[in-house]
Amino acid sequence: MFKVIFIFLLAGIAEIGGGYLIWQWLREGASSWLGLLGGVALVLYGIIATWQAFPDFGRVYAAYGGVFIVMSLLWGWLVDKKVPDTYDWIGGLVCLVGVFVILWPRS
Fold first, then answer.
1. Is the dihedral of CA 73, 78, 83, 85 positive or negative?
2. For residue 80, what is the DSSP state?
3. Taking a C-beta distance cutoff of 8 angstroms, is the pair 45, 18 a contact?
4. pLDDT tens for residues 12-62?
5. 34 and 25 Cβ atoms separated by less than 8 Å
6. Domain ranges across the chain
7. Residue 19's closest CA among 51, 43, 48?
8. Can you tell me the mean pLDDT for 69-85?
9. InterPro entries, per this entry (predicted)?
10. Which residues contact 97 (CB under 8 A, 6 or more apart)?
11. How far is CA 42 from CA 27, 48, 52, 92, in A?
12. According to the model, what pLDDT value does residue 19 have?
């Protein structure tokens, strides 16, 4: 289970970090090099996701969705200094429950 969690976190950092760098480039006027790095990170995300042991694409990506929602809230808090509110945390918890419902019987 630790390997599964590690791969989820690694993929999440690549996906959210890549999206963030592209956001900075296109929305905040940052260097196009950040956009390029963001694109590379998103390609790495696609590769990292294939390392999961679960055989079903749809289930893996559905579970990633729940994990990434919580990771996005944490990213916003730590990187953008936007503190999640109570409803953000409740929504994140609901998503994590969904992840466990999808994956736990299959792990």
1. positive
2. S
3. yes
4. 999 999 999 999 999 999 999 999 999 999 999 999 999 988 888 888 888
5. yes
6. 2-106
7. 43
8. 95
9. EmrE-like (IPR037185), UPF0060 (IPR003844)
10. none
11. 17, 10, 17, 23
12. 96
Question: How many other CB atoms sit within 10 Å of the CB of residue 93?
Answer: 11
DSSP string, 11-77: HHHHHHHHHHHHHHHHHH---HHHHHHHHHHHHHHHHHHTT-S---HHHHHHHHHHHHHHHHHHHHH
CA distance linking residue 75 with residue 94, whole number of Å: 18
- The residue with tokens 């289930």 is 59
Quote the tokens at residue 23. 């956001």
Total-model pTM: 0.84
* First vs last C-alpha separation in the chain: 7
